[in-house]
Amino acid sequence: MKSTVELDSIDRRILEALQENALLSNAELADRVGSSAASCWRRVRALEVAGVLGPAVRLLDPAAVDRGVNVLCNVRMRSHSRESIGQFEIFVRGRPEIMECYSMSGEWDYLLRIVVADVADYEHFLMRVLLEHPSVGGAASHFALSQTKYTTKLPV
């Protein structure tokens, strides 16, 4: 289990600002959070070393890259052996259309968020890729009609 990092108010302001705009220069960030540039730089580096800050990325508009369909897919495993689970998780990590994967409690073993171009694209993935995997015993798909909220910004 990960231990939490002690964050003061400036650290929290840094995290808020960087979640809104990871392209801020160090000077802009320092000005925004009320810190000197040198202190701000040290804090950002310390947050990176502590694993609080991960890599900076740019978020894409899914529709602009022909991935406008979101499918939530419940997966049931054939077996719960370590080998079977391990093979499935390696498979998931290697599939670019699987954006998120959660091991679940309850009736289903996993929940996947899959992005595709259209229903035919998803049908191909489901029938010829996912259900062909030897660890997968079954799946249930739910198509998102619209997106009410999406954020990558965590409350800090």
Key phrases:
Arc Repressor Mutant, subunit A; 2 domains; single chain; 37% helix; 156 residues; four-stranded antiparallel beta sheet; Alpha-Beta Plaits
Strand-helix topology:
Layout: H1 9-20, H2 26-33, H3 37-49, E1 69-77, H4 82-93, E2 98-103, E3 110-116, H5 119-130, E4 136-143
Antiparallel strand pairs: 1-3, 1-4, 2-3
Helix pairs in contact: 1-2, 2-3
CATH topology of the largest domain: Alpha-Beta Plaits
- The CATH architecture classification of the largest domain is 2-Layer Sandwich
- CATH class term of the largest domain: Alpha Beta
Order of helices and strands: HHHEHEEHE
Strand content: 15-25%
Average pLDDT for all residues = 97
Helix content: 25-40%
Can you identify the CATH superfamily of the largest domain?
A: Lrp/AsnC effector binding domain/regulation of amino acid metabolism (RAM) domain
Return the structural class.
alpha+beta
Distance between the ends: 19 Å
Radius of gyration: 20 Å
What characterizes the major β-sheet? 4 strands, antiparallel
Number of strands: 4
Strand adjacency order, main sheet: 2-3-1-4
Query: Shape, please?
Result: elongated
3D structure, described in words:
The protein has helices spanning 9-20, 26-33, 37-49, 82-93, 119-130, and strands at residues 69-77, 98-103, 110-116, 136-143. The chain has 156 residues and is an alpha+beta fold. It folds into two domains: 9-49, Arc Repressor Mutant, subunit A (Orthogonal Bundle), CATH 1.10.10.10; 62-143, Alpha-Beta Plaits (2-Layer Sandwich). Strand 2 (98-103) and strand 3 (110-116) form a beta hairpin. The model has no long low-confidence stretch (mean pLDDT 97).
